[in-house]
Amino acid sequence: MFIQTEETPNPVTLKFLPGRDVMEAGTADFPNRDTAEDSPLAQRLFGVPEVAAVFLGSDFVTVTKVPDADWQVLKPAVLGAIMEHFTSGDPVMRKAAGPAHAAGDGENNEVVSQIVELLDTRVRPAVAMDGGDIVFHGFEDGVVFLTMQGACAGCPSSTATLKMGIENLLRHYIPEVDEVQAVA
């Protein structure tokens, strides 16, 4: 098994490409080891002490390290954990991932549908290339509420991505959108 790695815009996060599907559908975000009970793969990765967060995408695994760890030292242990998982035959997830977006808004259903479609077709594929994902939480009074996950969570450029990229895109296509705000 050959696992490729790619740098992400976030210096504490690397994207690992195992050359096979990771998630059958959706994504899974594990911001700390206490949240990994549903994923044998994430649990195995958190067995490496310097791993701070794990994100699972369709065909990639994004790993965030603790700030003082060195990728030169950490990368072989992460590669080993991923390889060990896929050769073990264990499932990536014990149960299916939840929906891609956290909430809807019946009151603004048409606008919400347009927002979600733009996020799914234009934004999420681009964010996934950087090892992350974006989750829609709601739309209220012209404000779109989103969460960045994976490599995008805590990335130095995530605010610029939200404000100059996603906000401008949504405002261009959907006049009802005034602003995009991050949800923690």
State the main characteristics.
about 25% strand, three-stranded mixed beta sheet, Ribosomal Protein S8, Chain: A, domain 1, alpha+beta
What would your notes on this structure say?
The protein is an alpha+beta fold and 184 residues long. The chain has two domains: 4-88, Scaffold protein Nfu/NifU, N-terminal domain (Ribosomal Protein S8, Chain: A, domain 1); 106-182, Fe-S cluster assembly (FSCA) (GMP Synthetase, Chain A, domain 3). 34% of the residues lie in helices and 24% in strands. The protein has four helices and eight strands; from the N terminus they run βββαββααββαβ. It has helices at residues 40-46, 71-88, 109-129, 158-173, and strands at residues 4-7, 13-17, 28-30, 51-56, 61-65, 132-140, 143-150, 179-182. The strands form two sheets. A five-stranded antiparallel sheet has the order 1-2-5-4-3, covered by helices on one side. The protein is elongated. The N and C termini lie far apart (36 Å). The model has no long low-confidence stretch (mean pLDDT 88).
Secondary-structure blueprint:
Layout: E1 4-7, E2 13-17, E3 28-30, H1 40-46, E4 51-56, E5 61-65, H2 71-88, H3 109-129, E6 132-140, E7 143-150, H4 158-173, E8 179-182
Parallel strand pairs: 7-8
Antiparallel strand pairs: 1-2, 2-5, 3-4, 4-5, 6-7
Helix pairs in contact: 1-2
